TrEMBL record:
The Mn(2+) ion enhances activity. InterPro entries: Amidohydrolase (IPR017439), Bact_exopeptidase_dim_dom (IPR036264), Peptidase_M20 (IPR002933), Peptidase_M20_dimer (IPR011650). The keyword Manganese applies. Mn(2+) binds at residues 139, 141, 175, 204, 421. PANTHER family: METALLOPEPTIDASE, PUTATIVE (AFU_ORTHOLOGUE AFUA_6G09600)-RELATED, PEPTIDASE M20 FAMILY MEMBER. Residues 1-20 form the signal peptide. This is Hippurate hydrolase. Its cofactor is Mn(2+). Keywords: Hydrolase, Manganese, Metal-binding, Signal. It comes from Algoriphagus boseongensis. Residues 228-318 form the Peptidase M20 dimerisation domain. The keyword Zinc does not apply.
Length: 451
């Protein structure tokens, strides 16, 4: 009987502890956070517009990085710069507790902005080939950066409410699927002594109605890899193909045969995508060139499928080259340019964060989406903690489309009013404080002092 009583007592204590840990932020603290963001919204929007008008491409985010570093220093963070070229980290140690890493990406895209905003980007940059190209924040990384700055201010203001270590990381080159890896390989956790995280947090804009927050546990986004495949041949006159070995023909056959990996080699229950986004070969109409390059992109939900996609592309490419008589030293060259694993949210931690988002009033039952199907879009966010044991990730989508614009699109039978990476992409200014509040509640929930 004593043993049974001990079991009952243990269950009671565990249940009480679980309830205490999951009770969320106090109403008083939640109100302080939301009021603080509301009072700072005008400044945040000004910073957002400035960043939007001054976009920078991956690994060239010097101005943006400077703004982040200056702000973090003014708030008392230990700041480290130049990580992975332009990455910035701010560290605030505030007693014993977990290490929470919050990441925001800073880079923009080669997109010509066409949305009618009076603060639209007019920036153009010179590319490697000497051409001039437009630059736009068409994926909301300007908003992501502002949300990090807001979080930095909130957590510094309410240090007496939390305990642990907060790491704020402004990352370059997410669009290249290379920035997170660059920071890690540059010694993020070694040379720069950034504490390894227990929790990794992040947010991303999506063209859902403003106020909508997607907080879904499990697989959220696909893994990706960018790679180039170069076929070599024997060039010559277009009138005499019999004296050449045409790399354009080899590459053309490869494009169609790659899809057989998806259609006939993979288990139909698995997800895999092989996209050929560019085909570069030759200059003249009547010259067969020496080489042809394909630019590929993979998407996958598991590393097993990732390996299958790569091996399939490699075997097909080499098989075609051999079929057309190329020697072993002229087999296609594959350059692997960037890779990130699938983004998987920790279910228990997501539930805990969602509970605080609801209790704080930042979201409600209608605006919080807790079950969301995994998408084939990708993020290099997981590369920041790939291979580390026990890191729990929470990555949420934030709606940034004006609700009226979103409702009109839905009434017209469209899924969304516009998409990320499009010239018409817009971040509704009313979404700036929403993301800022979500970021602060997420971090505070995981670092808050438990009475």
């Amino acid at each position: 009987m004593k043993f049974l009583n001990l079991i009952i007592l243990s269950l009671f204590l565990n249940a009480s502890l679980s309830k205490a840990q999951n009770s969320g932020l106090s109403k008083e603290l939640a109100n302080k956070i939301t009021s603080s963001v509301d009072n700072d919204t005008e400044r945040l929007i000004t910073v957002f517009k400035d960043l939007h008008q001054n976009p920078e491409l991956g690994f060239g985010e010097t101005r943006t990085a400077g703004i982040v570093a200056k702000e973090l220093q003014s708030l008392g963070y230990e700041v480290k710069t130049g990580i992975g070229k332009t990455g910035v980290v701010g560290i605030m140690k505030n007693g014993e507790g977990p290490v929470v890493l919050y990441r925001a990406d800073m880079d923009a895209l080669n997109v010509d902005e066409k949305n009618g905003l009076n603060y639209a980007s007019k920036v153009k940059v010179k590319m490697e080939d000497g051409s001039e190209a437009p630059v736009m924040h068409a994926c909301g990384h300007d908003a992501h950066t502002v949300w990090l700055l807001s979080l930095a201010k909130t957590m510094a203001a309410f240090k007496d409410s939390w305990s642990g270590t907060l790491v704020l990381l402004a990352q370059p080159a997410e669009e290249l699927a290379a920035g997170a890896t660059a920071m890690v390989e540059d010694g993020l956790y070694t040379k720069y002594n950034v504490p390894k995280p227990d929790y990794a947090l992040g947010l991303h804009t999506m063209p859902f109605a403003t106020g909508t927050v997607v907080g879904s546990g499990g697989v959220l986004e696909a893994g990706t890899e960018l790679l180039d495949v170069t076929f070599y041949g024997v060039g010559g006159h277009g009138s005499s193909p019999q004296w050449t070995k045409d790399p354009i023909l080899m590459a053309a056959y490869a494009i169609t045969q790659y899809q057989a990996v998806i259609a006939r080699a993979m288990d139909p229950r698995d997800m895999g995508v092989i996209t050929v986004g560019a085909f570069h070969a030759g200059i003249n109409n009547n010259v067969i060139p020496e080489e042809a390059t394909l630019k590929l992109n993979f998407r996958f939900f598991s590393e097993a499928v990732h390996e299958q996609l790569f091996n399939g592309v490699k075997n097909i490419s080499e098989g075609i080259a051999r079929t057309y008589g190329m020697p072993e030293d002229k087999m296609p060259k594959i350059v692997r340019k960037g890779h990130t694993p699938p983004l998987i949210n920790d279910v228990e931690t997501m539930n805990r964060v969602n509970a605080s988002l609801k209790s704080s009033g930042v979201v409600n039952e209608k605006t919080l989406v807790e079950k969301f199907p995994a998408i084939t879009g990708s993020e290099d966010f997981p590369s920041l903690y790939e291979g580390m044991e026990g890191v729990k990730a929470v990555y949420n989508f934030i709606g940034v489309a004006d609700p009226d614009v979103f409702a009109k699109a839905r009434a017209e039978g469209k899924d969304l009013p516009y998409a990320n990476h499009q010239p018409g992409f817009v971040v509704d200014l009313k979404a700036i404080p929403v993301g800022a509040k979500v970021a602060s509640v997420m971090a505070m929930e995981l670092l808050r002092k438990v009475n």
